[in-house]
Amino acid sequence: MTVRIITDSASDITAADIAAAGNPALTVLPLSVTFGDKTYADGVDLTHRRFYELLVEGDDLPMTGQVNPYAFEQAISSAREAGEEVVVITLSGKLSGTNASAMTATAAFEGGVYVVDSKSVTVGERILVDYALRLVGEGLGAADIACALEQAREDIHVVGLLDTLEFLRRGGRIPASAAALGKLLSIKPVITITDGVVELLGKARGSKNGRNLLTQQVEAAGGIDFSMPIELAYAGLDDALLRKYVEDSRHIWEGHVALDDLPVHTVGATIGTHVGPGAIALAFFKQ
């Protein structure tokens, strides 16, 4: 029996990504993104590029909404009717009710459906989906895939560098005075995701020191397992800062993967709402 992987758009896998990969085993369900009185389906009628255009044009942050149980139930029903088993991979249950929606939806099915909380989001969730698709290609069944994912997610390491504190201020996560001081001192926060929650690792003075701190985090994790999926991403309209980081950390990739072959994608609305443009992120499986 074939296996269908269902995930949510917080993985930042777009329809264009699916088309480019030519992988029929993946379904992505969109979260909602609301700017003012207009609501979009993330990655469906709102591209990542248009999201950032709207983000920088407005003064207020958008609202993101979880995937509801009905959407999961419809996608699972379609797969089961086609004779497929299902593995659902969601963003962290501590960051969104999307995981709870998936669990609610599975109650309507007697078997063959498994839900895995990625305990991550954006690039961290994405590499777990990539690994799941690899296991589908190897012929594993849904139960074995779900078990493997729950083990593998513990080895995922995500590090990110924010270019600005402005969007954390807008979201009420830090006071205006802290954002103003951070701007004055060119503070660049470095973050990670620990047990499904975003955590501050440190604060660097300037982009160069921030990029160095990212590299230190890779080394502190014990290095990258290049036999597993890795992912780089940037938030905003250009990837200049990410390309600079890749070049500055050339020693990490040399002998493992050509710089031009590193997978680079964009951070979407779920995290982009809070970090704003200019942020960069790396997700990998630890050795």
Automatic annotation (TrEMBL):
Keywords recorded for this protein, A-Z: Lipid-binding
Gene3D superfamilies: 3.30.1180.10, 3.40.50.10170
Keyword Cytoplasm found: no
Record InterPro entries: DegV (IPR003797), DegV_C (IPR043168), DegV_domain_contain (IPR050270)
Residue ranges crossing the lipid bilayer per the database entry: none
PROSITE patterns membership: DEGV
A Pfam family the protein falls into: DegV
One MF term in the entry's GO annotations: lipid binding
Domain of life, per lineage: Bacteria
NCBIfam families: DegV
PANTHER family recorded: DEGV DOMAIN-CONTAINING PROTEIN DR_1986-RELATED, FATTY ACID-BINDING PROTEIN TM_1468
Name the UniProt record assigns to this protein: DegV family protein
Protein species of origin: Parolsenella catena
